[in-house]
């Protein structure tokens, strides 16, 4: 009996491993072989005119008081607010003929009172007029985003800033951070008179590729088992549930190729979410084939992460501060144009280290449609829970029996009922444990933390639950086979008696199979196949 159970369980586990292996793509990112080599670790911007510094035309961070005032920006069909920051002279008057910068938000919501506060304030205190608009949200959601349309909205902010007193309209540029770095190049192509573009923590590659790259980096930093990586292309590469998400394949590179204004590219070397070497290389290559001069300056800031912020220097409960040299360099580059546009060194700062390339994500096969995955999980769980719940309720009220002369007859053959309960409960419990595990790992990853008990122990727990569920399935199969075999000698031997019990059996079996196949797809039953 024990040998049969072991053999049947092993066969089921191998079968599930094979299904999981062939049901979707594997994850095999290619290592970076051509690395970026900064000319110097000093990020200081070259090409700044000493005479302009002496005359006060190029200021340093902290040279000026900052006046902040709210503005209203008219968009197509709505209005948004914004914060305009202007530098003041020593006597309190506004500076004149100053360059201006419009900030373009990254992913998520973006209030002008909360976004870019440190960067915009520092830049303005050096002598640059800045405008941070509120992010338009009525056309922006997790499911639907249109980067070309968003560029048109931000163009209204550019127009407004050009008309502000004290701003030189010929020296207005845009600063795009993270997701905003997909929008800023579109803005510059739509309006070639935009004087410059700043791309901070720029993904460059399409959103789907960047997402897969970021997940891979976060998981490696968290120390998850190798088997977990198989889930990356299966989650990121699928057609996401409910449709939409067409922006996931947006490619900004055709706009990079058409840039005509100087570009400043800045990354933090601790930014795990962005391809910090590949992004710079792509920008350098793409802007080089454009129709006009679009010189590129690249700077890497040591230990800075997304948004060029340094986590290690943050006081408890406060916002992560900007890297100490970033605002200085930003102010010098903007105010020193055109002299700073192509000044040496082109690439400087800390040495970046990107392990793997961001690349097109393999598409899943059978579970390539997210709606199918959701239906399999919810449908399978629903069938098991409803069937076992109904059976349990009936068992509490009164046994599901038929009265005979020889007494009460149970609905299932001996051993079938307990194995059925174990199968259904195990399938649901393993699915829930996998979901909890993935959420726990995601929390650790986004917080830049490691916890081997959660990461390693949690994965072992999920897999052991999966094995126990497969053993329950093996025992159920054996009991069914035994009863059917006994029919030859005992004519009344039945696996199930009564129609309600048939419904319970098939609901639990179908639901459990749906969950087991889904668990196999997500890698719970990997055997190195």
Topology:
Elements: H1 2-22, H2 50-54, E1 65-75, E2 78-88, E3 98-104, H3 117-125, E4 129-133, H4 147-162, E5 167-177, H5 180-190, E6 197-200, H6 207-222, H7 231-236, H8 253-256, E7 263-268, H9 276-287, E8 296-301, H10 326-336, E9 347-349, H11 370-397, E10 403-404, E11 407-408, H12 416-446, H13 452-486, H14 499-521
Brief write-up:
With 529 residues, the protein is α/β, with parallel strands linked by helices. It is 43% helix and 13% strand. The strands form two sheets. A nine-stranded mixed sheet has the order 1-2-4-3-5-6-7-8-9, with helices on both faces. It has a two-stranded antiparallel ribbon with strand order 10-11.
Q: Please, how many helices?
A: 14
- Report the top-level CATH class of the largest domain: Alpha Beta
Which sequence of strands runs across the widest sheet? 1-2-4-3-5-6-7-8-9
State which percent range the strand residues make up. Answer: 5-15%
CATH superfamily of the largest domain, by name, is Alpha/Beta hydrolase fold, catalytic domain
Q: Helix amount, in percent?
A: 40-55%
- The strand count comes to 11
The CATH topology of the largest domain corresponds to Rossmann fold
| Mean pLDDT over the residues | 90
The secondary-structure class comes to alpha/beta
Note the run of SSEs as H and E: HHEEEHEHEHEHHHEHEHEHEEHHH
**Termini Cα gap:** 29 Å
Q: Could you say how many structural domains there are in total?
A: 2
Major beta sheet, specifics?
9 strands, mixed
């Amino acid at each position: 009996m024990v040998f049969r159970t072991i053999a049947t369980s092993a066969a089921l586990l191998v079968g599930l491993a094979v299904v999981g292996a062939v049901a979707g793509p594997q994850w095999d990112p290619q290592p970076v072989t051509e690395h970026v080599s900064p000319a110097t670790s000093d990020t200081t911007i070259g090409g700044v005119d000493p005479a302009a510094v002496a005359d006060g035309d190029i200021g340093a961070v902290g040279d000026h008081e900052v006046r902040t005032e709210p503005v209203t920006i008219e968009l197509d069909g709505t209005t948004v607010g914004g914060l305009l920051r202007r530098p003041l002279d020593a006597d309190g008057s506004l500076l004149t003929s100053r360059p201006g910068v419009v900030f373009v938000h990254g992913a998520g919501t973006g209030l002008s009172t909360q976004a870019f506060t440190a960067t915009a304030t520092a830049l303005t205190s050096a002598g640059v007029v800045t405008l941070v608009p509120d992010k338009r949200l009525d056309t922006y959601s997790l499911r639907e985003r249109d980067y070309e349309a968003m560029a048109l909205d931000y163009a209204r902010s550019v127009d407004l800033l050009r008309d502000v007193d004290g701003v030189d309209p010929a020296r207005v540029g845009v600063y795009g951070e993270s997701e905003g770095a997909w929008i800023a190049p579109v803005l510059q192509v739509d309006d070639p008179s935009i004087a410059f573009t700043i791309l901070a923590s720029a993904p460059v590659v399409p959103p789907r590729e960047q997402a897969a790259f970021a997940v891979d980096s976060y998981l490696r930093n968290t120390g998850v088992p190798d088997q977990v990586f198989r889930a990356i292309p299966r989650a990121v590469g699928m057609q996401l549930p409910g449709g939409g998400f067409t922006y996931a394949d947006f490619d900004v590179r055709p706009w990079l190729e058409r840039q005509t204004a100087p570009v400043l590219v800045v990354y933090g070397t601790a930014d795990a979410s962005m391809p910090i070497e590949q992004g710079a290389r792509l920008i350098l290559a793409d802007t080089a084939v454009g129709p006009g001069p679009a010189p590129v300056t690249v700077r890497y800031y040591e230990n800075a992460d997304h948004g060029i912020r340094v986590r290690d220097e943050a006081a408890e409960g406060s916002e992560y501060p900007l890297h100490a040299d970033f605002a200085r360099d930003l102010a010098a580059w903007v105010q020193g144009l055109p002299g700073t546009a192509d000044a040496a060194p082109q690439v400087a700062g800390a040495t970046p280290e990107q392990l793997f390339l961001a690349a097109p994500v393999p598409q899943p096969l059978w579970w390539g449609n997210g709606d199918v995955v959701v239906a399999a999980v919810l449908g399978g769980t629903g069938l098991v829970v409803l069937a076992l719940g109904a059976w349990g309720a009936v068992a509490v009220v009164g046994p599901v029996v038929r009265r005979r002369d020889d007494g009460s007859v149970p609905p299932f053959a001996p051993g079938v009922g307990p194995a059925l309960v174990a199968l259904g409960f195990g399938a649901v419990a393993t699915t829930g444990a996998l979901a909890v595990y993935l959420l726990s790992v995601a929390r650790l990853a986004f917080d830049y933390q490691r916890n081997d008990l959660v990461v390693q122990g949690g994965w072992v727990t999920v897999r052991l639950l999966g094995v126990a569920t497969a053993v329950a399935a093996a025992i159920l199969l054996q009991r069914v086979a035994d009863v059917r075999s006994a029919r030859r000698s005992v004519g009344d031997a039945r696996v199930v008696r009564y129609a309600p019990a048939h419904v319970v059996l098939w609901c639990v079996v179908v639901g459990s199979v749906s969950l087991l196949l889904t668990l196999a797809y997500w890698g719970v039953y990997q055997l190195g196949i």
